[in-house]
Structure formats: structure tokens, C-alpha cells
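Retro notes, item 3 of 5
We never archived the inputs for the adenosine-5'-diphosphate complex last cycle. Fixing that now. Sequence and ligand:
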Amino acid sequence: AAPLALLSSLALCAQKGILVKDGRALELMGRIDTVLFDKTGTLTRECPEVGRVITANGFAENEVLMYAAGAEQKFHHPIALAILKKSEEWGIDLPATDETQYKVGYGIDVGVNGRRIRVGSARFMEMEGIALTPEIQEALDAAHLEGYTMVMVAIGDRIGGALELQAAVRPEVKDIVAGLRARGVKHLAIISGDHEAPTRKLAEELGMDRYFAQVLPTDKADYVEKLQQEGRTVCFVGDGINDSIALKKANVSISLRGATSIATDTAHIVFLEQGLGKLCELRDISRELERNIA
Ligand code: ADP
Ligand code: MG
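Structure as it came back at the time:
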């Protein structure tokens, strides 16, 4: 590539708060025909709201929240941020924790006040052999109808409760989707580790072509590879630990402010301002660069 054209494009990006760590990715962005978006923390805001707190097996609401917040206190995941904010609102003192195990895509396994606490998806509970009560199952189904994410809290070896998480879509996302389509990006999809129901709901709301739900980290990367084998040039946009392998595989990878450091370290390009607002401009800058090189 003509180095001068590339340098001036890089300077323009810097001016707009777009950190380009790989010039080749900037050149490629104009030729992307597929964009895969992570859901939680990428299309949705960094900190969701905790809605309903449901209890089971005789545990109290503030007990469930206390254990959940204790387990999440060292994490920066959107689910962790939401739970910690809620526990602060309720005036809960965070308990001490023992060694923490994070099962990416599932949840957390940790000792809190000498009790074993597991916080994560319904699938995680199933994997761990923790039965949901009928009330919890009912609340889970109801939340899914609304498109909410549910996080289960196991206290000892029983389900203690569940937290409903309501994540707002970032305000610029609708325009970004329309803008990408107007710029000739043919395929747009969501790829999420979250449950099918909230993922489908958001995909429909945004008019995405496809969605992939309950996807584990290595599977996110496999989807990228599969699409590439079909001849697509793929951009992956993500914020989480569970996105890092896919970010590595994609032709162009983008992360954003507030993302986990493994995501921003891996991505070719990082938006330094809040949200995804610069995505279409990035495409335009790349197109312009292509014209100047040709
Ligand atoms: P996405 O791929 O949409 O960003 P997540 O990163 O939220 O999805 O991860 C998928 C699922 O893994 C979550 O819906 C949740 O069930 C579980 N999970 C991930 N991190 C945590 C956490 N810190 N606490 C509890 N559950 C978690
Ligand atoms: Mg995410």
C-alpha cells in the first residue's frame, strides 16, 4: 500500500478516537461483507439493570444478592457490574471470598463466607447438577419471553435464587445497522454466549440476518472460520474474554471502550469513545483509503 495514504488515514482515525493497531485491518475494512456482533456489552450497554430478584429454598432476597455480589466482585463483565451496582444500592457489604474459578461462557464458582457459591446460566446449573425449583423455572421462562437474561445463584448445593438482567441496547446501534447496510455490508449477525431467547429477541429487533446463541468461546471462532471458508470477509466486534479467540480469527476485529483488556489487546481496532458510533465512519475511511491507493 502507498504508505502516505495509509498514514493520513491513520491520522484521521486517531483524530476521531479510533485506535488502529493494524494498518492492514484498516485497509480491509472497506471490503468486509459480513459483520458479527457480540451481544452483551457490545450491542447492549456496559452495565445492565437488575430487575426481579427471585428466591428459592427459603433464602432471602438480600442473601441471594449478597452472595451473587460477593462472587462477582473481582469481575468486570456486564453481569458483574449490574449485580455490584444493585448490591451497593441495597447497602450490602461485600463478603470475603476464597479462590475463584471463572468458567468462561458459564459462570463463577467461588467460596463466599465459607459457602460454595455458583453464579451463572441455567445451563451452568444443569452442568453442575443443581436443580431449579418450579418457581425459578417459571421466572426463567417469563424472563425469556421478555428477552431478559437470567443469572442463577446456587448457595451450597441448592439453587438459592435468580436475578433478572435487563440490558438496554446502545442508542446508536439501530443507525449503525442501517448505515452498514447502506454501505453495502450484506450480512449482519449476532453471536452470543447468552441464552437463545434474549439473543433472538435482539436480533429480530435490530433486523439482523442471523443469530447464534449459547455459543462457547471456541465456537465463536469456529463460526468466523466457517464464514471465511464460505468466501466471506468477516469483521468481528466484541468486548469479552469469550470473544478473544474470534477476534483473533476475524479479518478485521474491533473492540470498544469498557471492554475487557484481553479483547482490546487482541482487536485490530479499538473505539476509544463510548459505544459503536464510529463503525460507519471507519468503513468510509477505509473505502477512501482504497481509492487513494488504487
Ligand atoms: P455475550 O457473548 O453475549 O457477550 P456473555 O459474555 O454475557 O455473553 O456470556 C454468556 C453467558 O455466560 C452469560 O449469559 C452468563 O450466563 C454467563 N456468564 C458469563 N460471565 C458471567 C459472570 N461474570 N457472572 C455470571 N454469569 C456469567
Ligand atoms: Mg460480551
